[in-house]
Structure formats: C-alpha cells, structure tokens
Amino acid sequence: MTKSIGIAGCGIAGLATAILLKQSNHSVTVFDEFETPEPVGSGSVIQPVGQTVLAACGVLDQAVKDGNPKQRMIGCQFGMERAILDVAYDPKKHIRFGLAVHRSTLFSALYKRACALGVEINHSAKVISI
Fold first, then answer.
1. The model's pTM
2. By C-alpha distance, which of 101, 98, 94, 93 is closest to 49?
3. Which of 58, 80, 107, 111 could form a disulfide with 39 if both were Cys (CB 3.0 to 4.6 A apart)?
4. Count of alpha carbons within 13 Å of 42, Cβ hemisphere only?
C-alpha cells in the first residue's frame, strides 16, 4: 500500500529516511525551513551499521570514494597523554572500518540520490505543528 509521507528536515537523517521510503514505493515530501537545504555541522565518522544504511540508500560507494576509511581511531583529551577512546576495526581483513566523511560530502550524495528518485523537497517550509 502506497502512502504519502512528509518528513520534517532535509538533513542527513531526513534525506536517508526519504530515500528508503521512496525506494519502498511511497510518495515522499521533505519539508525544510531553509531556502536552500545545505549541510549543517562538520565531519563525522560513520560506523559499520551506518554504512549499511548508506548502502541501502545507494550512496555508500560515493561516500567511501569521497571519505577516508579508518581502521583505528584513538582519541586523547587535549593536554593529556592517555587515550580516552581507542576503537579498532578489522585490521587484518579490512572489511569493517570507520568512514571519516565531511557532512557536506554525505549531504550532497544523499541529496542527489533523493532528487534522482523523485523525492519532492519543499524549501522554505516552516513546521508549526505536528
């Protein structure tokens, strides 16, 4: 059964949701208050479970091409020598990795895919109630 679905927000999550719903043959409209939807924020590291979603949306290959796969991430608190984060993926097989990608790169891939699928994007819309 095809449904008409509205999504508030043309960010990463809104676009990914719109793509998945459109691929399931629903009519999807994304509403965003900005005149021109654009990425907000900086970079991200997409974990393997998030990469599964990007693959389902049809944009993982582009994200990997434009991003930077990481086999290990170590985080230290500024001014301290000890690690407060140490995430290792699958260094021998290189199957699982963290994907460091700038938000604008990810946004662009999702936005282009949503438009190509025919997701309607309603710019300059203000959600005032649900």
1. 0.84
2. 98
3. 107
4. 0
